[in-house]
Fold:
Amino acid sequence: MNGTTDATLPGLRDIERAADRLAGIAVRTPLLESPMLNRLAGGRVLVKAEPLQRTGSFKFRGAYNKLSALPPERRNRGVVAFSSGNHAQGVAAAAQLLGVRATIVMPADAPLIKLNNTRALGAEVVTYDRDREDREAISRRIVSETGAELVPPFDDPEIIAGQGTIGLEIAEQADALGVRPDLVLVPCSGGGLVAGVSTAIAERLPGVPVYSVEPEGFDDMARSLRAGEPVQNSPGARSICDALLAPSPGTLTFAVNRRTLAGGLVVSDEAVRRAMAVAFETLKLVVEPGGAVGLAAILDKRIDLAGTTAVVVCSGGNVDGRLFAEALAG
Amino acid sequence: MNGTTDATLPGLRDIERAADRLAGIAVRTPLLESPMLNRLAGGRVLVKAEPLQRTGSFKFRGAYNKLSALPPERRNRGVVAFSSGNHAQGVAAAAQLLGVRATIVMPADAPLIKLNNTRALGAEVVTYDRDREDREAISRRIVSETGAELVPPFDDPEIIAGQGTIGLEIAEQADALGVRPDLVLVPCSGGGLVAGVSTAIAERLPGVPVYSVEPEGFDDMARSLRAGEPVQNSPGARSICDALLAPSPGTLTFAVNRRTLAGGLVVSDEAVRRAMAVAFETLKLVVEPGGAVGLAAILDKRIDLAGTTAVVVCSGGNVDGRLFAEALAG
Structure:
């Protein structure tokens, strides 16, 4: 794995340090439950509600941890990130809190709510054409021109450790309920969220299987886990899960996930729309398409819950009203 | 006031006892905040998120407290309630948890989600025609035929005390944030929720003004407070706030509210729709029309928030998808 060794993988200590940095700053999101959702799922479901996180998604955790971990003299030269939206808002909010200038490179066709929110958080937004321009090249140019620090979306130990704080909270909150989960489902794009959560769960709830969940056409993590090496998605695939379109696992995230994950599940856009409607009706929670894949896997019976308790991470809620209304209309 | 004296009004001790009964059973709902919502409101806004409560509204608190306070030999004869929906679900869920039979008298045109959810909670639902039949007479008939206990929707000390636990939580959660609120806004129909919350706030945050908020055409509490005696709403009024259509304040709730409230605010259905859309976008929270009146009062500048911190109770999230989609469409 490009020379990735155990020593370079983020561990429990890194996640605990991230939790200390995020204490009182990130929202300790609740673990929600609904008897009606349990009936629909055929088992007990505890939903980790990251739409209620600052900026409406888990991405704030990793971004704030990463920026906090940078030496001030580097951080103060500003930060740059490329993102379809949630990482953009996470970095912008973290930079604003730390008094740092942020430039975010975003696709021109990103959901309007994500573009607007990123600007509202004080960041400079640079848009690009998703089909013709290379966002990484644009970001590198800004880095070389300004000396700013690039904040990667997932393939970074401090980003992974920040997202891993969700795993710590799941273990603590389940314990407070007197519950030991039988499995944990986590949405997956580049794999940073599931890498962090699975690292924390492996230490705090050893033996509890953690699964990544991806949309059809973007199931690179599931196939990479089976292949034992990172594979790419085929070009041209489409999904309503705009937050989960990474082309392949990261080097570091795959090195973690191949050790920690029990497997990868895959869901259809149709199942995702239904999961959004069920979250609306039973949890009163707004969940964006990419945030709802774990719930979709359960409702679509991609895994059998009979007699078990599942923790499902709902990772974000940044969705345009029109798309949300379409999901409600079924 | 029909002989209502201080001695019969619910006090802090009753609310604390309710909090003990509800501990580990009701959800301790979070106090949510959004920088974007703060900007729109022109002040700091902390939202007490009761859509995340069991059954999707605060009504579970009062119902569970009332049923718990009944002697078992009376409770075990079953309970009856009449309600347009949220009280119905609250009583049904409380009865189910306590192993008691529940019969709920609901208008045939109540939101489908509320009818279905009440049945799913194991209650027997008896529907009636809102324009031609008297729900109280139907309920009394069931009581006399079965010996079941009537659970009133708001005009009852144990119901008020149960809703008051929201006030205790607001005081504790604000304190944990290091914040002293400058005002508290609470949706109002019969006035049980605002009576309970204002009683708790008067003790735990003395001097902090609490306001009731009602929809236009159903502003009986605001007018009663000004008149110094209970007044009725004019017949024939309509509002999308299906949870806030009580015709007049309760005897007990008015006796409390005339002492505890700073005043009553009134909002339009249009402001309510916008508040629902803002809660969707900034809080990722599903709020039903009646639950959103406090947020509507702030966004519509019914009260000046400049330089202040307001706590707004969002009281429920049981709304049909079509109505919610209409609110999002503006």
